[in-house]
Specification:
Strand order of the largest sheet: 3-4-2-1-5
Radius of gyration: 14 Å
Structural class: alpha+beta
Largest sheet: 5 strands, mixed
CATH class: Alpha Beta
Strand content: 25-35%
Helix content: 25-40%
Shape: globular
Distance between the termini: 24 Å
């Protein structure tokens, strides 16, 4: 299962961590949930790296992606919320393969 942890503070996203694998198809077959999730997250990272290079820290490790907000802005928060809305759409149709948890810190 893909696990998306969202940490918020004062109505703004502070951190997003994405880990796991959707496992919506047998090994060797096309896992569309994983492909959809990867496209959204990697596309989001590319946009964040270009538009908000100094405002967030992007961490990519094997099976672990982390976005840490360093400098809060309304525009950055809107981009992160947009990315999460896309992931929520996948979660609504595939709740057994992706779970989003949002918490106030």
């Amino acid at each position: 299962m893909v696990d998306v942890q969202v940490s918020c503070k004062h109505n703004g996203i502070k951190k997003i961590v994405v880990t796991g694998h959707a496992e919506s198809a047998p090994v060797g077959e096309k896992d569309f949930v994983c492909a959809e999730t990867s496209a959204i997250v990697i596309g989001g990272l590319n946009g964040l790296d270009e538009l908000f290079k100094n405002d967030c820290n992007l961490i990519l490790k094997d099976n672990h992606i982390e976005i840490r907000v360093l400098k809060k802005s309304d525009m950055l928060n809107m981009v992160l919320e947009f990315m999460l809305k896309q992931l929520q759409t996948i979660e609504e149709t595939n709740p057994e393969n992706i779970k989003i948890t949002r918490k106030e810190v």
